[in-house]
Fold these 4 entries.
Entry 1:
Amino acid sequence: MHTEEIFIDTANGEKLAATVFYPQTVRAAVMMAPATGMLRRFYRPFAEYLAAAGFAVITYDNQSIGGSMHGWVSASAASLVSWGRNDMPAVLAHLQTLFPDTGCHLIGHSAGGQLIGLMPNATELKSVFNVACSSGSVRNMPMPFRAKAAFFMRAFIPVSNAVFGCTHSGWVGMGETLPKHVARQWSEWCCGTGYVQTAFGKEVGEHLYGSLDMPAQWLFAVDDDIAVEANVDDMISVFTAMPSEKVKLVPAEHGLQEIGHMKFFSRKSQHLWAMATEWLHRHSE
């Protein structure tokens, strides 16, 4: 296996930093779509594992995140909608260019799975494997986490945006600093129903949520305060034509103390990663 650091041009003139993982023999190609504000390096161990199993992988930073930050974050026009409509299609198209003779799959973490219906070329995916992907509806979260989430969404985001022109998520342990439109939509969608469905007919006009019909598997952990089962069901319901399988992960059943929203991709959870390769093998025939 070897890797290559590249930049990908998007339709709206942005350059996305990406890493390509090349296996010795390519069985299929995988787009690793990140959670909100997560850096591509977070997924490197997982991508290396997939490449060792024969799957080419591309990881990337969304517009105005990590290596894809150009200029001041407070001046960024990036939004969740633009990540889905511009960033994700560009990454998939580049993956297809690199590996034209094999099928492409998407592994989505949280927002990386939520935004698939905004991709105009999403119909070209052979399958979807989502981890901790849900509507993130605050009202379904358990207490006391719900109170913290409500404060972050309804108070911290608007105040930070108003004062700084961006959301300093790291100040409250919520990852990278977010462009104001990303954070605003995140807040509005998580405080609504069906996540992106909240914006249908408003900021989201045409979309593919009702027509995507590739097979999908949705993994969620019982100790995840965000992707609780009600929120997973809420998100699946937006993909009305997608045949979906749900898989509930109980940490103790896998010898783990926690999985939560993030730790499926931790090296400590590496024995869970076979679930992804099994899915990819099954849908790469």
Note: Helices lie at 44-52, 80-98, 111-114, 145-164, 180-190, 229-236, 274-282.
Entry 2:
Amino acid sequence: LGIDVGSEVLIIRANDVIPRVEELIKGTGSVHKPPKKCPECNSPTEFNGEYLRCTNKETCPAQVIGRLKTWINEQNILEWGESILQKTIDAGLVKDVGDLYRLTAVQLEKLDRMGERSAQKLIDVLNGHRKISLENLIGGLGINGVGTSTTKVVVEAGHDTLDAMLVLTESRLASLGGFGSIRAKALVNGLKTNKKRIEDILAAGVTIKPRVKGKLTGKSFCFTGSMEKPRPVLQKMVEDSGGSVKKSVGKGLHYLVIADTNSASSKAEAAKKLGTTLISEQQFLDMI
């Protein structure tokens, strides 16, 4: 649209909801040009589709911290915030995920504003996340367009070991629900380019938990509304019993756990149309 700094533009509500820039009314002649060098590491940039990316994937500081944050978020390791991650990078202790699991309390103690007890606590937290699911391992790698929920689809389709995941083809993935050709290609290529990272993470002491088989194996659940028990507790109960948790109502969902099974909410109605069974929290607990 030729939009520049200080432009006057016309904005509409697309579909009566989303703000969208419709046209340029008046420009200033100061169109900003995409940088040819990364502002973080001064490496060349390149366009990947509509995204401008730094080509220095290995050592660009922004990409290093980005990979670590993605991993930490996927494993839900709340105690390890961006500040402590940055300190370990600045100290030359960590360059990638595997390095996190090789850290010692003695190394962390030497960081700024880090005491002995705090250092040991951080190490204990990491040690508590050494056994992870296959979907959390793949989802934590930061493959574009491929997160934990996407990987779960593949695991639940029977590709539930790392070896099985590594030999997947684009055509096989594209045949699974929720996978288009673009996402299938992203996962296959992402696994290839991250193979050494995966090996390094496993060599650092991270292990893949065997898939749980129990009363809820093969069944999927989505929780909505208020519950007696905290939702994370209920979701963990599903996974501990071999079931899977969905974030939203969609095709293939088996059960929607809802406070009122007679509810006429949009989510409840959508579930009914898709053939999903509505159950109460107590009915869910009875299933367990």
Note: The beta strands are 8-14, 18-26, 45-48, 51-54, 131-132, 207-208, 220-224, 244-245, 255-258, 277-279.
Entry 3:
Amino acid sequence: MKPTKESPIICWWSGGVTSAVTCKICLDTWGSENCRVIMIDTANEDEDTYRFKSDCEKWYGCEIEQISAIKTVPHEKHGRQFESIQDVWEEFESLNSASGAICSSYLKREVRQDWQRKNNYSAQAFGFDNKEINRANNIRKNYPASKPIFPLLLFCYSKEDCIKIIQGAGIEVPRMYQLGFRNNNCFKTGCVQGGIGYWQKMQRDFPDKFLAMAEMEHKLTNLKG
């Protein structure tokens, strides 16, 4: 694999510590001229994520590009533009399906696949840590066109290792980690893929978010009849 400016490594930056370290490894290995760091923005992230993004840009010495399905172009299958993550849930009358979270499918996976159809790349780097080997194997098996690579697995890095690397660079980790959450995603509403422990913590510490999501779940149940 010889990435070039015309066919770079695509480093997916999600706002979490594992993706942040993954991007840094790629930039140090292949050079910023042969990499593009890209964030798929759900417009549902904690505000501190964008502070972390700015800090990472300084650490990397390059821009983190942003792409999004929110308020950009109409969805090709459904003919209308999504205004928010709630808009996605209401469009499909669901939070989750057999294939996973509706919002993740339409605001992340489809955005990434649409991007890859329109751009050249030599590989795509994903920030899966040493406890996510099954996720890595799933992408290799089901999405071979993405040409996936997993730098953290090569070093057997854990999430805790990544936190130490971030802190060692003098960067404050995202607020959600400081609040005791394991991941930094979709904090405006809370993540629909969170488990029982996640939502119990949300109920204790952020009851307004918990109640808003409970109301959304009831609304969608009623819409489905």
Note: The chain is about 50% helix and 10% strand.
Entry 4:
Amino acid sequence: MTPSSLFPAAFRPRQRRRLAARLCAIAALLLAGPALAQLRLPSVNLPALPSAGPLAQDVLRPLAPLLTERLDLQRTLLRRHPELLETDPAGRLMRRAELLWVSPTPDALQAARAQGFIVLREQDLSELELRQHVLRPPAGMATAEAAQRLRAIDPDAPVDFNHVYLPAGGTATVAHPVPPSGTTRGVTTARVVGLIDGGIDRRHAALASAQVTTWGCGGREHPSSHGTAVASLLVGREGGFRGVQPGATLFAADVYCEQPTGGATEDVVRAMAWMAREGVAVINISLVGPPNALLERATRSLVARGHVIVAAVGNDGPAAPPSYPASYPGVIAVTAVDGRNRALIEAGRALHLDYAAPGADIAATNAAGRRVKVRGTSFATPLVA
């Protein structure tokens, strides 16, 4: 594997200079902003990247899986569950044969049914001032073609695929716990924060002092390592480990429920409506995926109501397409640095970038109750939220 094939754009001098300029701007923002005193967010140093010649194998080897982690997960899900999942024309993961129709008129719904569409689910999300419908295309019709049919029926009602959003970071168990760098000085003032992610293990000692309210999965709990790790960084406290808001009130929405189709747009938006209903002012979303009409409308509505959405930029590398919801206007987009304040080489990008925070060389708690080493923009996001 050559450097150009692994990092097709990030190592070109022109793009590298642009990335350096962006990161310098972030550092200046952090040093000037009042959040620095509260969160102790670091300035950002561009990783030392060779400008020419082959990269050493000891550098390439650990970086390659980090840059392909989410894509590998997508391929695995497609291979194991082809009856439930497919990709849209751009190759992005979605629920098979499902379309989202945002607030169509009653006449439009009747016309769609007359053409053979089946309404699978519909829900009034009054908190977000929209109504979502999930439709199945007529038999034998491709999902992309069906989307065009619905747009023709009601051009004013947005139509999109039921995309699936995936976590923006991973965990690995370590024999000797790594200090929770960047989270040891928690703010003790009582706060309320929201989390849209996988399920959390709220019975774990690290979350025992937090006030936790959960949503999703029909009331059943499905703890996940990713969700629990992010929650521990938000509100955890155990021994020498402290999240940024130990003992705070956490509203945690599980949008996965251990299902292969978990993380779908409709579930993320339903979770956002719940956050609005509960009046949760700050919401952490450490999930990434493509732009989506329903998600965009929901995000716009939350931001207009005064909610703060803090989202990860993902770990697909600096040459990847912009990630969502981090790229939507009004969303706080977060990237990550390591323990030496160097930007993570696998960190993705958004259409804008607001903060950098520690996302490597830190520890969190997983669903098995063990201290784990975490890496990714997923874990920088709660430090900002």
Note: Residues 1-56, 172-189 have pLDDT under 50 and may be disordered.
